[in-house]
Specification:
single chain; 106 residues; mainly alpha; 2 domains
């Protein structure tokens, strides 16, 4: 077996280093949210945005999702996205239920 024609793809180390630096910057920005003592919706929005950006970079580059077939990407990403839609629907329903309870029982 010839090892020079082995299957697989080699990615340049510079790509991984750039992503690592970007993850470090996003983590520093996430910590800065606490350091400057932001509060309320802005704080949680920024923390969640930085979290999703870091998770997306890790999935795309380090888990090699960027180089996979579209069918596999859809098979992995669509079910969690559907769950997020269902969670959003249940949040809307819970707010409606809470509103009606306050309206009729107070």
């Amino acid at each position: 077996m010839n090892t020079s024609t082995s299957e697989g793809q080699q990615h340049p180390i510079s790509l991984y280093l750039k992503v690592w630096v970007l993850l470090f910057i996003l983590s520093a920005l996430s910590y800065m949210v606490d350091y400057v003592q932001l509060e309320g919706l802005l704080r949680w929005s920024l923390i969640l945005i930085f979290m999703f950006l870091k998770a997306g970079l890790i999935i795309a580059i380090f888990m090699h999702m960027m180089w996979e077939r579209m069918a596999l990407i859809c098979a992995i990403l669509i079910p969690p996205l559907c769950l997020l839609v269902f969670v959003a629907l249940m949040v809307a329903e819970s707010e409606y239920t809470l509103f009606t309870r306050f309206s009729f029982f107070s």
